[in-house]
Amino acid sequence: MEALLDILLAGSFWAAAVRIASPLIFATMGELICERAGVLNLGIEGIMVAGAFAGWMAVYSGLGLWPGVAVALGVGMAFGLIHGVLTVPFGLSQHVVGLGVTLLATAATYYTYRLALPEVTAPPRIAPLAPLPIPILSDLPLIGPALFAQTPLTYLAFGCVLAVSLILYRTPLGLAVRAAGENPGAVEAQGLSVTAIRIGAVMAGSGLMAVGGAFLTMSAFDSFFFEMVNGRGWICIALVVFGAWKPGKALLGALLFAGFDALQIRLQQTPLGADLPYQLFLALPYVLSILALVAMSRRAQVPAALMVPFNRGER
Amino acid sequence: MEGGAAPPALRLDRITKRFGPLVANDAISLTLDRGEVIALLGENGAGKTTLMSILFGHYVADSGTIAVFGQPLPPGHPAAALAAGIGMVHQHFMLADQLTVLENVVLGTRSLWAPWFDRAAARARIAQLSRDFGLAVDPDAPTGTLTVGERQRVEILKALYRDARILILDEPTAVLTPQETEALFATLRRAVGQGLSVIFISHKLHEVLAVASRIVVLRHGRLVGEVAARDTDRHLLAEMMVGHEVPAPKVAAQQAGPALLRLDAVETPDRNNRPGLRGVTLDLAGGQIAGIAGVSGNGQGALADLISGIETPAAGALQIAGAGVSRWSPRAAIRAGIGRIPEDRHKTGGIDAATLTENAILENYEWPPISRRGWMRWPVAEARTRQIIETYDVRCPGPATPLRLLSGGNIQKLILGRVLEAAPRIILANQPVRGLDIGALTYVHERLLAARAAGAAILLISEDLDEIMALSDVIHVISRGRLSPGFPRGSKTPAELGLWMAGHGHDGARDAA
User: Does the domain made of A2-118+127-297 have the CATH classification 1.10.287?
Assistant: First the structure.
């Protein structure tokens, strides 16, 4: 118990939680935008892999860090375009297309990696984004290191949540996106193009997923490994449900999951960790997330037209 | 009219639209003047909705042109129709249920790239329109929480908010109580008073006569007549609509038989958004038709599910022919001699991909003569099906045809045959003629009346008050899961029943008591 208290009172724990949450926040916002428009994007896992690789590779090839983030964004949007075209105008199964995009993006990434770096045994390192402590605020206890001594990409993740909220609830564009996920017929009857809105949402969302992946190679770490994304995309899909399709609640979910993850690493170092198999600790954030998901999402309002293709002029 | 030079509000010229071999609209031309209400009258499948969908840009016509206020309308773009001043109130509301009224109304009225939208201004304008046109509705309520009548007001507000000059209403009264219909007509009169033009689509003759100045009749995709409302009557219109005279169903008075179905203070739970039953008491005797009137979604589904064995009473008692039931289930209902004509013939009436034979024996395949010692006897099943096809005039290539290839009317005849050939004691007829043309409708009614004459007890659930009043010996009204007492045939006017449909009947009864 004392050990737990020590962990929770250390600034490094909170800083780690926010750091672990950052890629989840980007990708969760991306998935949320897609689902709000009515498209389930199971390409998320693969798009994160592609984004992680693309950003890192761009920097390794000589581009700056921010141009590298832009490259990741562009690669994500390209996969989003593939997903959107297949699921929206062609109306194919969103599950099949999504898993297909994940396989395609993952395989294309590994292929490109092998082509670009045929002889390396250990992947080369880049100089990642450095932490940017904010004067005065970063000296606050606990929340200082957690919120004000992170890399710029983490700040951007929080800004992204704010932007997504404002756009969804305060602009005509966001209204159209939400309506497209509720009743595409209503959108069409008001003279808007459901196809354009949905493809646009999937592209924007996929771009954010890729930036989430790029966070791993360009901010959290400085290199690219296979298996690096390691199921984070699937977690984000659960986080969208946990957040009841609302950006603020989804952010909370991402922080909660990341907090459990940071906690379990530290619990492994305690005397308790010596007695229990470490796999139990690894499973902890997932178990707790499932419990929280069940508790939180029971009364959530699913976008009514989620996974429902819209065919113009159909009787 | 404002001088001969002004072009009409709307001119359709020789609009033709085919769906495969079916000609849905065959060279239809019509004009709509400014400040005029015309009614588009026709049976289901006559092509009314197709024509309006072309006008609104949901479909593209194969040939023909449309001009709005003299300007040609580019085909296939709802945005163009909206910009030209056409507002459409769809039969199936085009609303996003989790969004508020205000959000539904302003959707698409601003450029998607506009940074914000001005909620205060939008709210003020909606309030103004609500006052001007008598369309009271809370702008901040999610549309999913509104009543059907309120949702329709939102649809009209959507059109008015965009300054529509032509309002098209597709079967707007199908879901309204008589009182709500009156309110809608008042709104339309105000709209016309402000110079709007209205196209009112319906198959209800008295409404058409009440609201329109000119009536255009469609039949099988063709325009078959155009008359001024003052020069015609229900009888003539019905004949134009169907192509021949329509006999009213003849319901001979007959003695009630023994009590066959009794519900005593039955309660069932709410399911999803559907209300359950609240203390429903009902007595139904052989040789009688009990009509259940009401606006859809007021417990009809729960009542039908209870009778057909899908739902069990949470409280109260259900008796069949004087005996209480235990272990109530669909199979128990079939065994108890209940014939079931379900509301949705595609979802619960049959299996679309299965053959007519398979569908015809769905309820008795386990028992002789259809099967014996666990083995199907397909020749017997097929002979049974052929007999149903012949007796009930099911138009089809043969018993091996998949059900989905049949038209709605023929599917309904097959289901009717399946039910009636089992000689049920009790028949649950839930919306038995929804979507049928007059020919099939008349046939279904005749068959139900024949079953009544043979002594069956029939529970007829319908949202069409005219149908209920024409056929029922006793009329009950269902509202929010409560069932009114039974009113004998002819003892209540439509307006009185409308009060019960709106849920005021119980209050009135309590005041009187």
Answer: no
